[in-house]
Amino acid sequence: MEANVLRGEAPLRIGTTDIVIAVEFGRLAKLSRALACDSMDELYRRLLGFEPYTVACAIRILTIHADQDEADRLALAAIQQLSSAEQEAWRVAIEAALTAHLEKGRSVRESVPLVEDVEMMVRQAEQAMDQGGGGSARAKKP
Fold it and tell me: Is pLDDT at 58 greater than 50 in this prediction?
């Protein structure tokens, strides 16, 4: 699959595996939630700093392909081969994808829908409050 830079996509080779990562707001939100980041600044710092767990999670969430099963397979193959030897390639790819995402904005590309995740979290919180008598309930993250 070829990367579309205008959509915040960038090609990346991890070991012998070629992937395309896509930076979209919904994907960043999922990654931020998975990593329990307090801010986008923290997420960007961890991505650009090649923090190993962050990079592994990012590969899993940001890898795209026309066939979702193939995207999953490629992401897992890349994670298995991930090492500090990929730090420079990672930085080049994530910087390119983040820059394109920030420069082009939402008007140029379709984004992974965030609304469904938010609605699910709200429903879970409401259900937890109904079951617990209205105290402070937290939704389970999907």
Answer: yes
Which DSSP string do the residues of 130-142 spell out, in sequence order?
HHHTSS---PPP-
Q: What angle do CA 93, 53, 57 make, to 5 degrees?
A: 60
Residue 94: what residue type?
A: I
Neighbours of 24 (CB within 10 A): 22
Question: From edge to edge, which strands make up the β-sheet containing 9-14?
Answer: 9-14, 17-22, 63-64
* Spatial CB neighbours of 97, under 8 Å, sequence gap ≥ 6: 8, 9, 10, 21, 22, 23, 62
Question: pLDDT of 31-51, one tens digit each?
Answer: 999 999 999 999 999 999 999
Gyration radius of the chain's alpha carbons = 17
